[in-house]
Amino acid sequence: MTYKRKLAVLSVIIVVLSAIYIVSLVLDTENSRSEAFAWLDPSLIVMADRIEITGKSGETSLSRKNNVWVLNLGTRELPVRQSRVEDFFAMLSRKAVYPLRAVTSEARERLGLTEERASRILIRGGAGLPLLDLLVGGEDVMGKEVYLRKSGGDQIFSGEGQFSIFANSLPILWYDLRLFEDLSIDSVQQADVFQQDGETYTLRRSGGGWILLEDESAYLETTRVEAWIRSVIEAQGEEFPLVAPEDFEGTLTLWLGDGTSRTLQAGPPDAGMRRNAVVSSSPMVYTLPEHTFNRLFRESSYFVRD
Q: Which of 141, 174, 207 is the last residue of a domain?
C-alpha cells in the first residue's frame, strides 16, 4: 500500500472515530433503546384542519377547506398537491421504530431541539386544538437521520431525513402548479392552437391517428402528436402571479370526448421571458417560462412526418 493510500485510509478512520466520539458526548448512550410508535394517531387525521410548519425556509400554513387542503399566503388561498399532504400525514402516522437517543437538556441544546432553534410541525384540529406539536432538530453525523422531540417532552428520538425535508421545504414545493387536472390522452379528441404571431391550426383524432384540418393530406406522426398532448396535459407553471394577462399571444383549447373543453391562454413575455397565463378550469393565474410556452405552442409542421 502506497504512502498516499495509507494516509487516506488513516484520515477516514480518524473521521469515523471523531464522529463516534462526538456522538458519545451528545447522546445518552446508557439510556438508548428503540420504541415503535406513530407520532400522530391515524384516527386524528380526519380531525386535522390546519398545518403550521416553521423551518429554515420560513413559515408555511395550510388549511383544509371543503375537504381540500390549500396554502394560506396572506389573504390568498393557493392550491396544493393533495398527494404531498397525504404523504406528509402518512409519514407522521406510520408506526415505525425510533431509537431513543437522549433525554437531557444538554442534548436538546446540542442537537438543535430547543424551542428556539428547532423546526416545528404543528397539526391543529377543531377550535385550534393541537393534535401534534413536533420539533425537528439537526441531522446525525452521517446525514441520514434527524433528531425529533415532542414539544414539552424530554425524550429525543432519531428518524428518517424525510421529517427535515417536510419541515424545512419552501412553500412553493407544496403548490399544485398543474395547468390541467385529471386528463388523459385518450380523452382528448381535438386540439385548437392559435398564435398571434404564428399560425392557427386544428388537430383532430381520426380513426387510430390524427389529421390536420387545414391540410388533411398531410401525413401526421401519431406518436409525435400524442407525445405533445401528453406534454400539454402534464404541463406546470412556475408560480402564481397576482395579475392576469390583458392580451393573449397564444390560445390552446383541448376538446374532450364528453363534449367539454379546457382552454389555456398565455400573454406576452415579460423582461425575464416569462408569461402569465390562465386556464378555463382554474381561477388561478400561472407563470409560464418561455421554453414551456414554446413546447406547448408548436407550429403544425412539427407534427408532419419528415
A: 174
Identify whether 69 is part of a domain.
yes
For residues 109 and 150, state if they share a domain: yes
E strands in the chain: 33-37, 48-55, 58-65, 68-73, 76-79, 96-102, 119-125, 129-139, 145-150, 156-160, 188-195, 200-206, 209-212, 250-256, 261-266, 274-279, 285-289
What pLDDT does 14 receive? 44
Stretch 251-266: mean pLDDT, rounded?
Answer: 97
Q: Are residues 109 and 238 in the same domain?
A: no
**Residue 277 is part of which domain span?**
185-303
74 and 133 both lie in a single domain = yes
Do residues 167 and 210 both lie within one domain? no
CA–CA gap between residue 97 and residue 100 (Å, rounded): 10
Q: What is the pLDDT of residues 133-156, one digit of tens each?
A: 999 999 987 878 999 999 999 999
Q: Rounded CA gap, 124 and 131, in Å?
A: 5
Three cell numbers written together for 120: 416545528
Distance CA 147, CA 154 (A): 12
Q: pLDDT tens digit string along 209-242?
A: 999 999 999 999 999 999 999 999 999 999 999 9
